[in-house]
Amino acid sequence: MWRLLTNRRVLMGAALVLALLTVAMWPETIPVEVGPVSRGPLVVTVDEEGETRVHDRFVVSAPVSGRVLRIDLEPGDTVVRGKTVIARVQADAPPLLDARTRAEAEAAVDTARGALGRAQAEEQRARASLDLANADLARERKLETSGLTTRQALDARLAAVQTAEEALRAAQFAAAATTAELARARARLMPATLEAGGRVLPVLAPVDGVVLRRLRESESVVPAGDPLVEIGDPRHIEIVSDLLSTDAVRVKPGMRVLVEGWGGDQTLAATVRRVEPSGFTKVSALGVEEQRVNVLMDFDAAADAWKHLGDAFRVEVRIVVWEAESVVKVPTSALFRVGDTWAAYVVDAGRARRVLLELGQRTSQEAEVRSGLSESQVVVLHPGDLLVDGSRVVVRAE
Fold it and tell me: 57-94+195-232, which class in CATH?
Protein backbone atom coordinates (compact mmCIF):
# COMPACT_ATOMS: atom_id res chain seq x y z
CA MET A 1 0.00 0.00 0.00
CA TRP A 2 2.80 2.38 0.90
CA ARG A 3 4.55 1.58 -2.38
CA LEU A 4 1.39 2.35 -4.37
CA LEU A 5 1.06 5.77 -2.74
CA THR A 6 4.69 6.49 -3.49
CA ASN A 7 4.25 5.65 -7.17
CA ARG A 8 1.23 7.92 -7.39
CA ARG A 9 3.15 10.79 -5.87
CA VAL A 10 6.01 10.26 -8.35
CA LEU A 11 3.58 10.24 -11.26
CA MET A 12 1.85 13.37 -10.02
CA GLY A 13 5.21 15.17 -9.59
CA ALA A 14 6.32 14.16 -13.05
CA ALA A 15 3.06 15.40 -14.52
CA LEU A 16 3.42 18.67 -12.67
CA VAL A 17 6.99 19.15 -13.92
CA LEU A 18 5.90 18.31 -17.47
CA ALA A 19 3.07 20.84 -17.25
CA LEU A 20 5.42 23.52 -15.99
CA LEU A 21 7.91 22.78 -18.79
CA THR A 22 5.10 22.91 -21.33
CA VAL A 23 3.92 26.28 -20.07
CA ALA A 24 7.48 27.62 -20.01
CA MET A 25 8.21 26.46 -23.53
CA TRP A 26 4.85 27.50 -24.95
CA PRO A 27 5.34 30.20 -27.67
CA GLU A 28 4.69 33.71 -26.42
CA THR A 29 1.92 35.68 -28.10
CA ILE A 30 3.30 39.03 -29.30
CA PRO A 31 0.99 42.07 -29.49
CA VAL A 32 1.40 43.89 -32.81
CA GLU A 33 -0.02 46.81 -34.77
CA VAL A 34 -1.38 45.95 -38.18
CA GLY A 35 -2.25 47.79 -41.35
CA PRO A 36 -4.03 46.83 -44.56
CA VAL A 37 -2.56 46.21 -48.00
CA SER A 38 -4.70 48.47 -50.18
CA ARG A 39 -5.17 49.53 -53.77
CA GLY A 40 -5.32 53.16 -54.75
CA PRO A 41 -3.44 56.14 -56.18
CA LEU A 42 0.24 56.69 -55.41
CA VAL A 43 2.06 59.97 -55.94
CA VAL A 44 5.86 60.16 -55.61
CA THR A 45 7.17 63.66 -54.98
CA VAL A 46 10.41 65.49 -54.29
CA ASP A 47 9.72 67.78 -51.36
CA GLU A 48 11.74 70.89 -50.61
CA GLU A 49 11.39 74.48 -49.48
CA GLY A 50 11.28 77.17 -52.14
CA GLU A 51 11.26 80.93 -52.48
CA THR A 52 9.29 83.23 -54.73
CA ARG A 53 11.01 85.89 -56.76
CA VAL A 54 10.04 88.44 -59.38
CA HIS A 55 10.65 86.97 -62.81
CA ASP A 56 12.19 90.11 -64.33
CA ARG A 57 14.11 92.27 -61.88
CA PHE A 58 15.75 95.57 -62.81
CA VAL A 59 18.45 97.34 -60.82
CA VAL A 60 18.49 101.07 -61.49
CA SER A 61 22.02 102.46 -61.11
CA ALA A 62 23.58 105.91 -61.03
CA PRO A 63 24.39 106.98 -64.63
CA VAL A 64 27.28 109.21 -63.56
CA SER A 65 29.38 109.75 -60.48
CA GLY A 66 28.12 112.49 -58.19
CA ARG A 67 25.73 113.13 -55.34
CA VAL A 68 22.43 111.28 -55.36
CA LEU A 69 19.65 113.29 -53.79
CA ARG A 70 17.29 111.72 -51.26
CA ILE A 71 15.09 109.03 -52.82
CA ASP A 72 11.46 109.52 -51.75
CA LEU A 73 10.05 106.34 -53.32
CA GLU A 74 9.05 103.59 -50.87
CA PRO A 75 9.05 99.82 -51.48
CA GLY A 76 5.70 98.99 -53.04
CA ASP A 77 5.28 102.31 -54.86
CA THR A 78 4.16 102.02 -58.47
CA VAL A 79 6.45 103.31 -61.22
CA VAL A 80 5.70 104.01 -64.88
CA ARG A 81 8.21 103.41 -67.62
CA GLY A 82 9.85 106.61 -68.86
CA LYS A 83 7.76 108.87 -66.57
CA THR A 84 8.44 108.10 -62.92
CA VAL A 85 11.64 109.69 -61.62
CA ILE A 86 13.45 107.01 -59.62
CA ALA A 87 16.26 109.28 -58.39
CA ARG A 88 18.10 112.51 -59.11
CA VAL A 89 21.89 112.57 -59.40
CA GLN A 90 23.90 115.78 -59.20
CA ALA A 91 26.88 115.19 -61.47
CA ASP A 92 30.41 115.89 -60.26
CA ALA A 93 32.51 118.62 -61.86
CA PRO A 94 35.44 117.31 -63.90
CA PRO A 95 38.64 117.01 -61.85
CA LEU A 96 41.30 119.73 -61.97
CA LEU A 97 44.47 119.01 -63.93
CA ASP A 98 47.73 118.76 -62.05
CA ALA A 99 51.02 119.95 -63.61
CA ARG A 100 52.00 116.54 -64.94
CA THR A 101 48.59 115.81 -66.46
CA ARG A 102 48.47 119.27 -68.04
CA ALA A 103 51.93 118.77 -69.56
CA GLU A 104 50.86 115.43 -70.99
CA ALA A 105 47.68 117.00 -72.39
CA GLU A 106 49.64 119.85 -74.03
CA ALA A 107 52.05 117.35 -75.56
CA ALA A 108 49.08 115.38 -76.87
CA VAL A 109 47.76 118.58 -78.48
CA ASP A 110 51.11 119.22 -80.20
CA THR A 111 51.25 115.62 -81.40
CA ALA A 112 47.72 115.78 -82.76
CA ARG A 113 48.49 119.11 -84.48
CA GLY A 114 51.53 117.59 -86.19
CA ALA A 115 49.55 114.54 -87.26
CA LEU A 116 46.87 116.81 -88.69
CA GLY A 117 49.47 118.78 -90.69
CA ARG A 118 50.91 115.56 -92.08
CA ALA A 119 47.44 114.29 -92.99
CA GLN A 120 46.56 117.56 -94.73
CA ALA A 121 49.80 117.48 -96.70
CA GLU A 122 49.07 113.90 -97.72
CA GLU A 123 45.61 115.00 -98.83
CA GLN A 124 47.12 117.77 -101.01
CA ARG A 125 49.59 115.34 -102.54
CA ALA A 126 46.79 112.87 -103.33
CA ARG A 127 44.73 115.66 -104.89
CA ALA A 128 47.67 116.72 -107.11
CA SER A 129 48.20 113.10 -108.16
CA LEU A 130 44.54 112.85 -109.12
CA ASP A 131 44.75 116.06 -111.22
CA LEU A 132 47.78 114.69 -113.04
CA ALA A 133 46.07 111.37 -113.65
CA ASN A 134 43.00 113.12 -115.07
CA ALA A 135 45.20 115.22 -117.40
CA ASP A 136 47.02 112.11 -118.67
CA LEU A 137 43.67 110.39 -119.25
CA ALA A 138 42.39 113.36 -121.31
CA ARG A 139 45.49 113.31 -123.53
CA GLU A 140 45.21 109.54 -123.94
CA ARG A 141 41.57 109.88 -125.03
CA LYS A 142 42.58 112.39 -127.77
CA LEU A 143 45.32 110.05 -128.98
CA GLU A 144 42.92 107.13 -128.96
CA THR A 145 40.46 109.15 -131.10
CA SER A 146 43.24 109.85 -133.63
CA GLY A 147 44.29 106.22 -133.58
CA LEU A 148 47.73 107.04 -132.24
CA THR A 149 47.51 104.86 -129.11
CA THR A 150 46.15 101.47 -128.08
CA ARG A 151 43.15 100.46 -126.01
CA GLN A 152 45.47 98.92 -123.43
CA ALA A 153 47.19 102.25 -122.80
CA LEU A 154 43.81 103.96 -122.33
CA ASP A 155 42.74 101.32 -119.79
CA ALA A 156 45.97 101.90 -117.88
CA ARG A 157 45.20 105.64 -117.67
CA LEU A 158 41.67 104.85 -116.41
CA ALA A 159 43.07 102.57 -113.67
CA ALA A 160 45.53 105.28 -112.65
CA VAL A 161 42.68 107.76 -112.20
CA GLN A 162 40.69 105.30 -110.05
CA THR A 163 43.75 104.62 -107.88
CA ALA A 164 44.34 108.34 -107.41
CA GLU A 165 40.68 108.86 -106.42
CA GLU A 166 40.92 106.12 -103.76
CA ALA A 167 44.16 107.58 -102.44
CA LEU A 168 42.52 111.02 -102.13
CA ARG A 169 39.51 109.53 -100.29
CA ALA A 170 41.82 107.74 -97.83
CA ALA A 171 43.76 110.95 -97.24
CA GLN A 172 40.54 112.84 -96.55
CA PHE A 173 39.44 110.22 -93.97
CA ALA A 174 42.86 110.38 -92.31
CA ALA A 175 42.63 114.18 -92.12
CA ALA A 176 39.15 113.97 -90.53
CA ALA A 177 40.40 111.45 -87.94
CA THR A 178 43.39 113.57 -86.97
CA THR A 179 41.11 116.63 -86.72
CA ALA A 180 38.96 114.74 -84.19
CA GLU A 181 42.07 113.65 -82.28
CA LEU A 182 43.19 117.28 -82.06
CA ALA A 183 39.77 118.33 -80.77
CA ARG A 184 39.83 115.62 -78.11
CA ALA A 185 43.34 116.59 -77.02
CA ARG A 186 42.28 120.26 -76.70
CA ALA A 187 39.19 119.20 -74.69
CA ARG A 188 41.45 117.71 -72.04
CA LEU A 189 42.94 121.15 -71.51
CA MET A 190 39.61 122.86 -71.01
CA PRO A 191 39.41 124.41 -67.52
CA ALA A 192 37.08 122.77 -65.00
CA THR A 193 34.23 125.04 -63.94
CA LEU A 194 31.39 124.71 -61.49
CA GLU A 195 29.00 124.99 -64.42
CA ALA A 196 30.50 121.83 -65.94
CA GLY A 197 29.30 119.91 -62.88
CA GLY A 198 26.29 120.42 -60.66
CA ARG A 199 23.76 119.39 -63.28
CA VAL A 200 20.95 117.31 -61.77
CA LEU A 201 20.19 114.31 -63.95
CA PRO A 202 16.82 112.58 -63.50
CA VAL A 203 16.89 108.76 -63.55
CA LEU A 204 13.64 107.45 -65.05
CA ALA A 205 12.00 104.05 -64.52
CA PRO A 206 13.04 101.61 -67.29
CA VAL A 207 9.85 99.47 -66.98
CA ASP A 208 6.40 99.50 -65.43
CA GLY A 209 6.20 97.88 -62.00
CA VAL A 210 6.75 98.60 -58.32
CA VAL A 211 9.73 99.37 -56.14
CA LEU A 212 11.02 96.12 -54.65
CA ARG A 213 13.94 97.44 -52.64
CA ARG A 214 15.43 100.85 -52.03
CA LEU A 215 19.19 100.39 -51.93
CA ARG A 216 19.90 104.07 -51.33
CA GLU A 217 17.69 106.39 -49.29
CA SER A 218 19.60 109.33 -47.86
CA GLU A 219 21.60 111.81 -49.90
CA SER A 220 25.12 110.50 -50.50
CA VAL A 221 28.02 110.52 -52.93
CA VAL A 222 27.98 107.57 -55.33
CA PRO A 223 30.24 106.39 -58.16
CA ALA A 224 28.88 105.75 -61.62
CA GLY A 225 27.08 102.41 -61.78
CA ASP A 226 26.25 102.27 -58.06
CA PRO A 227 22.84 100.51 -57.58
CA LEU A 228 20.05 102.73 -56.25
CA VAL A 229 16.70 100.94 -56.51
CA GLU A 230 15.37 97.52 -57.55
CA ILE A 231 12.08 97.46 -59.43
CA GLY A 232 9.96 94.73 -60.96
CA ASP A 233 6.42 93.53 -61.62
CA PRO A 234 5.08 91.40 -58.72
CA ARG A 235 2.32 90.06 -60.96
CA HIS A 236 4.95 87.95 -62.72
CA ILE A 237 6.71 85.86 -60.08
CA GLU A 238 8.31 82.44 -60.17
CA ILE A 239 9.43 79.90 -57.60
CA VAL A 240 13.05 78.84 -57.19
CA SER A 241 14.00 75.83 -55.08
CA ASP A 242 17.50 74.45 -54.62
CA LEU A 243 17.27 70.64 -54.70
CA LEU A 244 19.95 68.13 -53.88
CA SER A 245 21.63 67.14 -57.13
CA THR A 246 20.53 63.52 -56.53
CA ASP A 247 16.91 64.71 -56.52
CA ALA A 248 17.34 67.23 -59.34
CA VAL A 249 18.28 64.48 -61.83
CA ARG A 250 14.75 63.06 -61.36
CA VAL A 251 13.06 66.36 -62.18
CA LYS A 252 12.21 67.32 -65.75
CA PRO A 253 10.64 70.46 -67.26
CA GLY A 254 6.85 70.20 -67.47
CA MET A 255 6.41 68.18 -64.27
CA ARG A 256 3.50 69.05 -62.00
CA VAL A 257 4.21 70.89 -58.75
CA LEU A 258 2.07 71.23 -55.61
CA VAL A 259 2.74 74.46 -53.69
CA GLU A 260 1.90 74.25 -49.99
CA GLY A 261 2.84 76.00 -46.77
CA TRP A 262 2.63 79.45 -48.33
CA GLY A 263 0.10 80.84 -45.84
CA GLY A 264 -3.09 80.19 -47.76
CA ASP A 265 -5.70 77.49 -47.22
CA GLN A 266 -5.48 75.89 -50.65
CA THR A 267 -2.75 74.06 -52.51
CA LEU A 268 -1.50 76.01 -55.53
CA ALA A 269 -0.56 74.37 -58.82
CA ALA A 270 2.69 75.09 -60.63
CA THR A 271 4.85 73.60 -63.38
CA VAL A 272 8.59 73.05 -63.61
CA ARG A 273 9.99 75.44 -66.22
CA ARG A 274 13.71 74.80 -66.02
CA VAL A 275 16.32 72.74 -64.22
CA GLU A 276 19.51 74.78 -64.27
CA PRO A 277 22.46 72.96 -65.89
CA SER A 278 25.02 73.78 -63.19
CA GLY A 279 24.98 73.22 -59.46
CA PHE A 280 26.61 74.90 -56.50
CA THR A 281 27.87 73.98 -53.05
CA LYS A 282 25.75 74.88 -50.05
CA VAL A 283 26.51 74.23 -46.39
CA SER A 284 23.54 72.76 -44.53
CA ALA A 285 22.42 73.70 -41.02
CA LEU A 286 24.44 70.72 -39.74
CA GLY A 287 27.61 72.01 -41.42
CA VAL A 288 27.55 69.44 -44.24
CA GLU A 289 28.52 70.54 -47.75
CA GLU A 290 25.81 69.65 -50.27
CA GLN A 291 25.62 69.96 -54.02
CA ARG A 292 22.49 71.84 -54.90
CA VAL A 293 20.73 72.67 -58.20
CA ASN A 294 18.20 75.46 -58.74
CA VAL A 295 14.83 74.41 -60.17
CA LEU A 296 12.54 77.14 -61.54
CA MET A 297 8.75 76.81 -61.45
CA ASP A 298 5.83 78.90 -62.76
CA PHE A 299 2.37 79.17 -61.20
CA ASP A 300 -0.50 77.63 -63.15
CA ALA A 301 -3.29 79.33 -61.23
CA ALA A 302 -4.53 82.83 -61.92
CA ALA A 303 -2.76 85.69 -60.17
CA ASP A 304 -5.75 86.22 -57.85
CA ALA A 305 -5.03 82.87 -56.17
CA TRP A 306 -1.55 83.93 -55.05
CA LYS A 307 -1.87 87.73 -55.14
CA HIS A 308 -0.74 88.00 -51.51
CA LEU A 309 2.63 86.42 -52.34
CA GLY A 310 5.49 88.79 -53.04
CA ASP A 311 9.18 88.71 -53.75
CA ALA A 312 11.32 86.37 -51.58
CA PHE A 313 8.36 84.68 -49.81
CA ARG A 314 8.84 81.16 -48.41
CA VAL A 315 6.81 78.25 -49.83
CA GLU A 316 6.93 74.46 -49.74
CA VAL A 317 6.99 72.64 -53.07
CA ARG A 318 6.22 69.00 -53.89
CA ILE A 319 7.38 68.12 -57.39
CA VAL A 320 5.50 65.10 -58.76
CA VAL A 321 8.09 62.82 -60.38
CA TRP A 322 5.79 59.74 -60.70
CA GLU A 323 2.11 58.98 -60.15
CA ALA A 324 -0.38 56.20 -60.84
CA GLU A 325 -4.15 55.97 -60.35
CA SER A 326 -4.37 52.38 -59.06
CA VAL A 327 -1.56 50.30 -57.57
CA VAL A 328 -1.25 47.76 -54.73
CA LYS A 329 0.50 49.57 -51.91
CA VAL A 330 1.73 48.80 -48.40
CA PRO A 331 2.73 51.13 -45.54
CA THR A 332 6.50 51.62 -45.51
CA SER A 333 6.51 51.09 -41.72
CA ALA A 334 5.80 47.41 -42.41
CA LEU A 335 8.91 46.88 -44.55
CA PHE A 336 12.29 45.53 -43.50
CA ARG A 337 15.33 44.15 -45.29
CA VAL A 338 16.30 40.50 -45.66
CA GLY A 339 19.67 40.63 -47.36
CA ASP A 340 19.12 42.59 -50.57
CA THR A 341 15.36 41.93 -50.61
CA TRP A 342 12.45 43.74 -49.01
CA ALA A 343 10.10 41.71 -46.79
CA ALA A 344 7.05 42.08 -44.53
CA TYR A 345 5.10 39.99 -42.02
CA VAL A 346 1.57 38.99 -43.01
CA VAL A 347 -0.92 38.07 -40.24
CA ASP A 348 -2.35 34.65 -41.08
CA ALA A 349 -4.53 32.72 -38.59
CA GLY A 350 -2.94 34.39 -35.58
CA ARG A 351 0.63 33.91 -36.76
CA ALA A 352 3.13 36.18 -38.51
CA ARG A 353 4.29 34.84 -41.86
CA ARG A 354 7.28 36.42 -43.54
CA VAL A 355 6.91 37.16 -47.27
CA LEU A 356 9.50 38.50 -49.69
CA LEU A 357 8.41 41.44 -51.81
CA GLU A 358 9.20 43.11 -55.11
CA LEU A 359 8.65 46.84 -54.70
CA GLY A 360 8.24 49.62 -57.23
CA GLN A 361 7.95 53.31 -56.45
CA ARG A 362 8.13 54.45 -52.83
CA THR A 363 7.22 57.47 -50.75
CA SER A 364 7.88 58.20 -47.10
CA GLN A 365 4.47 56.68 -46.22
CA GLU A 366 3.64 54.03 -48.81
CA ALA A 367 5.34 51.73 -51.33
CA GLU A 368 4.13 50.10 -54.52
CA VAL A 369 4.01 46.27 -54.32
CA ARG A 370 4.61 44.52 -57.62
CA SER A 371 4.60 40.97 -56.21
CA GLY A 372 4.37 39.22 -52.84
CA LEU A 373 1.18 40.77 -51.42
CA SER A 374 -2.44 41.19 -52.39
CA GLU A 375 -4.82 43.93 -51.37
CA SER A 376 -6.85 41.63 -49.09
CA GLN A 377 -3.97 40.93 -46.69
CA VAL A 378 -2.99 42.53 -43.38
CA VAL A 379 0.64 43.28 -42.50
CA VAL A 380 2.44 43.94 -39.22
CA LEU A 381 3.49 47.55 -38.70
CA HIS A 382 6.82 48.34 -37.03
CA PRO A 383 7.94 44.68 -36.64
CA GLY A 384 10.28 44.26 -33.67
CA ASP A 385 13.34 42.02 -33.20
CA LEU A 386 11.33 39.41 -31.22
CA LEU A 387 9.04 38.79 -34.18
CA VAL A 388 10.07 35.84 -36.37
CA ASP A 389 8.45 33.79 -39.05
CA GLY A 390 5.65 31.76 -37.42
CA SER A 391 5.38 33.81 -34.21
CA ARG A 392 1.97 33.95 -32.56
CA VAL A 393 0.60 37.46 -32.69
CA VAL A 394 -2.38 39.30 -31.37
CA VAL A 395 -3.57 42.65 -32.66
CA ARG A 396 -2.88 45.34 -30.08
CA ALA A 397 -5.95 47.23 -28.98
CA GLU A 398 -5.90 50.87 -30.04
Answer: mainly beta
